[in-house]
Amino acid sequence: MIIDQVISSCENFGFFQVVNHGVPENLMDEMLEKVHMFHEQPSEAKAALYTRNFALKSTYVSNVDLFQAPAANWRDTYYCSMAPAPAKPEEIPIILRDTMMEYSDHIEKLGLELFELVSEGLGLKRNYLKDMECAKGWGLLCHYYPECHQPELTIGTSKHADSDFLTILLQDNHISALQVLHKNQWVDVPPVHGALIVNVGDLLQLISNDRLKSVEHMVLANLENPRASVACFFHGTHLEQPTRKYGPIKELLLETDLPKYRETTIDEYIKL
């Protein structure tokens, strides 16, 4: 049963791939093509969007961890807020605009379905996580990894776990670069044309009291060709409700269980 498969994957791996998800394959291909087109423009065409003010709803940035991490990532990113307060259509680069808005509609539907499946898998009411507004706030990150002539000297995205509730990832199908840490071993996540990758974020691990696993992953730099991916981060409503607190769901705690986390706001958690 699909519910059992989803919850088992969330508990044991924290990552899984989905097919027959309702997102048109030609739209997924077009989305990746447009990401390549945007990033492969001359620098001056993207300069107006470049900023390190991450409070804006439509931004372009290179080396997002600059000044924070000991090493830079070999990656550029365009970010667009999609809900609950989306970027205005005119704020989205015209190359991406129409395709991104159509793609986002499909991804929102898939995200809501996934939260329903996870809720049922946890033994909760089908709308439980939706009613918590886990899927109400989300954004798209369009990553671009240029080909690298010395990939052994850098990393595409350094190891990390996502700080959201749930991530849905679309990746180029011609280069295998994503790796997931499983049982202390780095495992390749080979691209499957038409599939989307789903992974548990830290906040879903927190509210499930460690039943669901948010695992570390990374992206290797590559020598072959540029690589693109589109990540949808379902991050809740902390931008609109910064004082809202999340903690382990009481219905998941048995009499012998103790909460493994204190209640916290999303901003407090991210800053830890």
Describe the model.
This protein is α+β, with helices and mostly antiparallel strands and 272 residues long. The chain has a single domain (2-271), classed as B-lactam Antibiotic, Isopenicillin N Synthase, Chain (Jelly Rolls, Sandwich), CATH 2.60.120. Helices cover 27% and strands 24% of the residues. The chain has seven helices and 13 strands. It has helices at residues 2-12, 25-39, 43-46, 94-121, 128-131, 202-207, 266-271; strands at residues 15-18, 58-62, 76-83, 138-145, 157-160, 166-171, 178-182, 185-188, 196-200, 217-219, 227-234, 245-246, 264-265. The strands form three sheets. The protein has a seven-stranded antiparallel β-sheet. The longest helix has 28 residues, at 94-121. The mean pLDDT is 92.
Question: Which labels suit this protein?
Answer:
13 strands; Jelly Rolls; four-stranded antiparallel sheet; 7 helices; 272 residues; 24% strand; alpha+beta; 27% helix; seven-stranded antiparallel sheet
- In N-to-C order, the SSE pattern is HEHHEEHHEEEEEEHEEEEH
CATH fold naming:
Jelly Rolls
Question: Separation of termini?
Answer: 38 Å
Approximate shape: globular
- Based on secondary structure, the structural category is alpha+beta
Radius of gyration over all CA atoms, rounded? 18 Å
Task: Tell me the number of helical segments per DSSP (H or I, 4 or more residues long).
Answer: 7
GO molecular function: dioxygenase activity; metal ion binding
InterPro entries: DIOX_N, IPNS-like_FE2OG_OXY, IPNS-like_sf, Oxoglu/Fe-dep_dioxygenase_dom
Pfam family, one: 2OG-FeII_Oxy
Keywords: Iron, Metal-binding, Oxidoreductase
